[in-house]
């Protein structure tokens, strides 16, 4: 074997040795969940408060927490991330760390408890956002503030049930004393692992990577195996929120970050890590409710395009929906959430290949081709040892119309597929209808509707023998307009 081949084999072995943790696997299965931004900023109609707002302004006339959760569930979200404290330092739970909290407002109730109870009632996962930046606490900017922050973590992690994630954005600015804080990230992480060992730590954390923007933009190919140096919280802080404007929310990642995990990008990259991507964006122009945005809900096509290019391209999607000053979601937001849910259910509820005859040109001893009929994690198909290419053919019982294909790798064995094609049979010949690269947890392929009695998935390039946990074909009567990926 030539030296070049030996080096390549060594690099591939290094790549496929990187696999997700159990907590990362469970997080990836959630795919789509909501963000809830609510607080004093809601009443000031600003994105960032400075910690000086009077508490008596928070006085909702018709608080309906269950409506929040039910509306998000209707969109096929599997959980929510509750905003517990933003940069102003105002806390939405009954905390002993500061008087600047919701118990001292006219509302006077523990909002986090209400949200946690509603999540249990409607079978939704609960995540927690807690800003380390605190513009009101007098200890911010001193070492003692890290103790305060740990106490706040202790309160929210031990008093409100099981948590699927703790979400940090890495923002770090001055406090009321004009000082910046040196965050003790490793201490925070260790404490979260102790109190909620199954929770992922997202964005400014070691488990989930920020996509690099807040516009819903996504890379052409998203890899979960990336250089381990991207896990540095300091790096995240440098790229995270420095301001909150529409210009920042639309800002795209630097072009040098377009390719984070291809084979070429990982050559000589040093240690690698499983660090999957999450895309965060809002249903409105901003994060907090503003009345002048009531008619600026993002178009359905745009939100569905984001969903298909995030959840359908190896990333999770967290979509923010802000409650209004009265305490509920406005009707335009609720309508859009229902429309999203209807699209997902109507399009992906029935797999047209459920009863198809499936054949593969090779199969490993530990992989069964029949396993790809189901999305569960009990089984998978895997190509025979030494094979880096493969073909799977799906022969339908009758002619079907299809315009979507969903593929899922068995990511417990890492992310392997690098290039694939989808072909359909027409008049006895095979024609290509889609060409793709990375698959990962899930890839949703869109194409013009075709009628066919057979389809092939052809894997042209992979890191060692490729795997598939699931392959499904669908027909959606409504297909959102495909947007051009702009930078």
Total beta strands: 18
Rg result: 23 Å
The major β-sheet equals: 8 strands, parallel
Quaternary:
single chain
How far apart the termini lie comes to 43 Å
Global mean pLDDT = 91
Proportion in β-strands = 15-25%
Q: Low-confidence segments, ≥5 residues, pLDDT <50?
A: 1-6, 248-256
**Tally of helical segments:** 12
Q: What share of residues is helical? A: 10-25%
Identify the overall geometry.
globular
The helix-strand sequence is HHEHHEHEHEHEEEHHHEEHEHEEEEEEEE
Strand order of the largest sheet: 5-4-3-2-1-10-9-6
Structural class: alpha/beta
Topology:
Layout lengths: L2 H14 L5 H9 L1 E5 L3 H5 L20 H10 L4 E7 L25 H11 L3 E6 L13 H15 L6 E4 L16 H11 L4 E4 L5 E2 L14 E3 L5 H7 L6 H5 L12 H4 L5 E3 L2 E6 L17 H9 L6 E6 L10 H18 L8 E4 L20 E2 L7 E19 L8 E10 L2 E8 L6 E20 L4 E2 L1 E5 L13
Parallel strand pairs: 1-2, 1-10, 2-3, 3-4, 4-5, 6-9, 9-10
Antiparallel strand pairs: 7-8, 11-13, 12-17, 13-16, 13-18, 14-15, 14-16
Helix pairs in contact: 4-12, 6-7
């Amino acid at each position: 074997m030539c030296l070049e081949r030996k080096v390549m084999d060594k690099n591939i072995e290094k790549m496929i040795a990187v696999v997700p943790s159990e907590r990362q696997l469970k997080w990836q299965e959630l795919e789509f969940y909501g963000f809830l931004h609510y607080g004093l900023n809601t009443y000031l109609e600003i994105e960032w408060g400075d910690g000086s707002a009077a508490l008596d302004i928070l006085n909702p006339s018709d608080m309906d927490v269950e409506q929040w959760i039910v509306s998000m569930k209707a969109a096929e979200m599997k959980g929510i991330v509750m905003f517990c404290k933003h940069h102003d330092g105002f806390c939405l739970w009954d905390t002993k760390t500061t008087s600047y909290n919701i118990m001292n407002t006219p509302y006077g109730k523990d909002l986090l408890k209400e949200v946690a109870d509603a999540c249990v009632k409607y079978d939704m996962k609960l995540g927690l956002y807690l800003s380390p930046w605190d513009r009101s606490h007098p200890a911010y900017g001193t070492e003692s503030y890290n103790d305060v922050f740990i106490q706040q973590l202790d309160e929210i992690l031990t008093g409100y049930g099981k948590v699927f994630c703790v979400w940090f954005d890495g923002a770090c600015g001055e406090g009321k004393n004009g000082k910046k804080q040196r965050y003790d990230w490793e201490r925070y992480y260790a404490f979260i692992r102790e109190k909620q060992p199954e929770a992922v730590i997202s964005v400014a954390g070691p488990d989930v990577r920020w996509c690099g923007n807040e516009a819903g933009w996504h890379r052409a190919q998203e890899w979960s195996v990336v250089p381990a140096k991207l896990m540095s919280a300091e790096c995240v802080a440098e790229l995270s929120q420095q301001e909150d404007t529409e210009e920042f929310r639309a800002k795209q990642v630097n072009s040098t970050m377009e390719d984070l995990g291809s084979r070429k990008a990982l050559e000589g990259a040093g240690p690698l890590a499983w660090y999957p991507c999450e895309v965060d964006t809002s249903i409105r122009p901003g994060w907090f409710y503003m009345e002048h945005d009531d008619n600026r809900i993002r178009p359905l096509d745009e939100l569905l395009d984001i969903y298909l290019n995030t959840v359908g391209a190896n990333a999770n999607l967290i979509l923010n929906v802000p409650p209004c000053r009265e305490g509920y979601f406005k009707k335009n937001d609720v309508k859009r959430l229902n429309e999203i849910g209807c699209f997902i259910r109507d399009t992906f509820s029935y797999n047209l290949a459920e009863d198809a005859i499936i054949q593969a040109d090779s199969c490993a001893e530990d992989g069964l081709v029949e396993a790809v009929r189901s999305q569960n994690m009990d089984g998978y198909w895997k190509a025979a040892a030494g094979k880096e290419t493969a073909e799977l053919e799906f022969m339908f019982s009758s002619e079907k119309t299809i315009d979507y294909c969903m593929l899922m790798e068995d990511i417990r064995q890492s992310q392997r597929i690098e290039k694939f094609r989808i072909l359909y049979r027409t008049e006895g010949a095979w024609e290509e209808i889609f060409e793709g690269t990375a698959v990962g947890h899930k890839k949703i392929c869109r194409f013009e509707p075709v009628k066919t009695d057979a389809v092939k998935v052809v894997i042209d390039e992979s890191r060692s023998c490729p795997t598939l946990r699931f392959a499904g074909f669908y027909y959606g009567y409504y297909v959102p307009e495909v947007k051009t990926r702009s930078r």
